[in-house]
Amino acid sequence: MRRFRSMTSARASVVLALIAGGLMACGGETAGSEGASSPAGDGAHPLLGKPGPEFDQKTVSGDKSISFHGLAGKVAIVDFWATWCEPCKKSFPKLEELRGRYESKGLQIVGISEDDEKGGIPSFASGLGAKFPLVWDSDKSIAGKWQPKSMPSTFVVDRTGMVRFVHLGYHDHEEDEIEKEVKSLL
After folding, report:
1. In terms of DSSP H, where are the helices of 130-170?
2. Domains of the chain in sequence order
3. Cα–Cα distance measured from residue 104 to residue 108, given in angstroms and rounded to the nearest whole number
4. pLDDT in tens, 35-44
């Protein structure tokens, strides 16, 4: 009987470890873990308070290119996501709501897909009503510079190109905090 309890306990530990690992990989951090950060916070992300790294990429629709340099003078949200990421399905409509409210005031949102293949990106975005520009980071070079720690990873950048806030993962009602951050920078 004692051996059975040990095996059951060991299996339960493995299952819990797998669940926790899966949640962390797709941004489901637990309370008290690294969520939103700011320069006044613990400085958890290396880009906080620094200029955002350059990228220049064709949009998924292919109709134009978008570059980080081209965002100068605007408050920007640079969002790393993937079609396989369940929390991204929750965050995308919230980002689109922010775009609708603040684009005319100088907000630009760019979604950067970390998918291995490009094919599902347009249907993912249109299915969730996203109208902001999307790029595909096919070789992960943009992610290599920005260092998203989970999916989604959302960077809020000021008009001078400095990363002011970082949100790792998606948490319910986080859009309220992101909206306050955007408003403070507009």
Report:
1. 141-146
2. 2-185 (3.40.30.10)
3. 9
4. 344 433 445 7
